[in-house]
Amino acid sequence: MSDEDYRLKRRQEWDEAGRRYDKLATGALADLSAQAAAKVLEIARLRDGETVLDVGTGPGSPALEAAPLVAPDGKVTGIDFAPSMIVAARKRAGELGIGNADFFEMEAERLDFQDNTFDCAISRYAYPHFTNARLALKETLRVLRRGGRLVAAMHGAAERNPYFGGPIAALTRYHDVPSPITERGPFAFSEAGSLEAAMKSAGFADVTIHVHNTTIVVDDFDQYWTAQKAGGAAIRRALEKVPQTRRPEAEVAALASMQQYVVGNRASFPAQIIVGAGWKH
Question: In this structure, what DSSP letter does residue 279 have?
Answer without folding.
Answer: E
